[in-house]
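Lecture 7 notes: from sequence to structure.

We start with a single chain of 380 residues. Read the sequence below before looking at the structure.
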Amino acid sequence: MTSLPSLRTETLDRLQALGAGDALSPRAAATCTTLIDKLRAPVRIGLVGLPGAGKRALLNALAGDTLADPRLDVPTLEVLPGDRPGLRATLADSSLLVVDGAPTAALLRQRPVYLRLTSPAPGLAGRRLLLLATDDSAQDLAAGLRWAAPRVDILLWCSRAWHPAERQVWHAAPDSLRNHAVLLLTGSEAPPRLRATDDGFDTAFRIDPAEPGGMDKLRAHLADIIDEAATQDLHGAQLFLARHAAATHAEPAKEPTPPPQVVPLAAASRPEADPEARAELGRLLHLLRRAAEDLRQELALAADDPDRLLSAFEEVFETLAGRCADLSHLSDRWPDLGDDVAEARDLALLLRIEGGAGQVTDAARLLVQVRTGIEERLAA
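Now the structure, written as tokens:
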């Protein structure tokens, strides 16, 4: 079985070879570049929470090295993989300081507002960490979350007790932060029973980076999330290659052949659809119409968030494809419909990877095409 790293390398090589040619349309070439960038990009993990919640200790544990001294009050800190330790500090007047090594007390006396650190720490392979520093006010924490939302893929909320004030700020935070969010309880005063999913988290862990094995469950969970996301991205890239790679092996043009004779629908002989198949098709159409109504409401709530909308479209197509596979009478009577919906699901995945408002429009058109195909079969 091919491992994810080797499959990623192979897929990147194929994408680069395809993009280096001139067989792709401008839009397909842009998608190819987007896929390459996405497969190369490190996973962005954000550490948030009130002061004193253990974010610095967690960052060091994830990195596998002491990059943020827990005794020092550091500002917002971004940590990236690099060949050697290096620090770029942004001061309040927007000037920059570039030094070697991790943040020191001498540097912090100059009151930097943002730190960007590169490090060869082992835990940074394929990852970048963002420690969000705020004061203990709800307003500052909320503002920090809004700033961090487009900069993280996975959110780790550190909390000593998960107070109602924290919960209120979290519920008002940008929805994109909930794509992959984990609540980390770092204090003994946290509630003994807590349903993290009720608050929009994937799960919750009680952690203590200082204890042997205190990070094991979190590390395993992060690895699962990252592998799942990488698998989806690779699937999208493979679909793109399957759709476009043939363009690099185009055969010489041949003499055109006359089009096949089309039998008029009225004269075409085809079996009547049995009542069970028509009933299943009707249920599929009802499911699609309900999903379309949900998408209209989602559009009203997130008109300026194309990533959220494209994810919603992808979920709809995934649901439709699964339902088609489950409806046996429908599959027997209209096997091509299942193929059409599966292809639409794959296209929706590519649209999500491309991102952007234009892709939302394309996803909507795709849904209309599927609905039209169902309605035409019902009317026949």
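The domain at 43-224 is CATH 3.40.50.300 (Rossmann fold). Keep this in mind for problem set 3.
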